[in-house]
Amino acid sequence: MGPALHPAAAARDTLLSMSPTATAPSLALSRRVSALQPSVTIAFGAKARALKQAGVKVLGFTLGEPDFDTPDRIKEAAIAALRAGQTKYMPTFGDPETRTVIADKLTSENGIAGITADHVGISVGGKHVLYNAAQALLDPPVDGAEHDAREAIIPTPAWVSYDPIVRLAGGEVVEVETTPESGFRMSPEQLERAITPNTRLIFMNSPSNPCGTMYTPDELRALAAVIAEKARTTAPSLVVITDEIYEKIVYGGIDHFSLGSVPEIADRVLTVNGLSKAFSMTGWRVGYCAMPGEFGKRLIKGMASLQGQMTTNITSFVYPAIRTALTECADDVERMRVAFAGRAKLIASRLAEIDGLTCPTPTGAFYAFPDVSSYFGRTSPKGAAINSPLELCNALLEEQHVACVPGEDFGGCGRNCIRISFACSEDQINGGMDKLGEFLGSLK
Predict the structure, then answer these.
(1) What pLDDT, in 10s, does the model give residues 239-256?
(2) What per-residue string of b and e applies to 364-392 under the rule 16 or more CB within 10 Å gives b?
(3) Domain 12-64+332-442 belongs to what topology?
(4) Where are the domains of the chain?
């Protein structure tokens, strides 16, 4: 399958202890699996947990997981369904009642016209939705084809799983690099230059993981205009996958806007969402997607056929919990959003106090993504060379017991950044930023 999907620093395998073990050829793994790099987010989370299990107090800022409990109303809905015997197989992509609730939500809240239950699918988390979509829309290269629509445009820095999901489906990634000065936002001009006759997918994620920033409605409309024109003239098979998992965690004065609500491109936009972040349901594994129009129905049906050979339906007694979350828990979501807004303000002020860091103000999701490159070329108090985010995060964890995520795997200018998840208490934020400032100030 070629080179590793996300080449990182040369010291990566040593630092993270993730080097593959040599195996006799007859017992080798497949090339596609052998080429995969493990998620650096999960790797640093695991290192932090191992230290905690050894009795070390670690301040963790790695995982994108709210520290709130799932609202009681959602739990009770699942418990009631379980007690009522809703424990059997369900339709692969969800029961009609739940799919209708999702369709109604996307129509009324997101302004996406023409969505019915037949345009909606439910999978085992948003990641599963994205994997299904890529497999349904991409093919491996075809020898001799004049135009081979298998390119996927990904504005970077981007969530670490988009790239391998595309490549596992046989696609080719085209990165569009953004900058901190732009708030990590792709411009219409950049998008226009990136689209070719071979473009099949465009990934969008607003609010952004890892950047913590988001596009304004006008900026998204400008991108939609480029997409509409290019789909008409250059890339007729173009599909947009818009990951809106953080849509309700916004606090920077920017309204969330769904690309699927733009009529000119609605029938080629797959909207992906789920309950993990806004409803604090990461462990429930609920993701969903929708696309209007006749092709939308075909895509959903195709993705359902694929899922039918993988996992079939999600846990059956979770469906009533989905309906409860989407129709009864707006006050719980708002309570958590307000808390994240306060934490965003706090971490922005604390990062601004540390000399040498530059970081756009978080406006959505629960991440800060500061540039730490001014500290490269230095050495930690215990002698660790700091020449990359990976080396900085490893030394920070080992010497100050603060866990952040190095930015290399997010692509683009992420090679200069670290990701700090502030899905944790204000006390932990203050303690972690104290230690980060002390550590950076100690580098020589």
Answers:
(1) 999 999 999 999 999 999
(2) bbbbbbbbbbebeeeebeeebebbbbbbb
(3) Aspartate Aminotransferase, domain 1 (3.90.1150)
(4) 12-64+332-442, 88-319
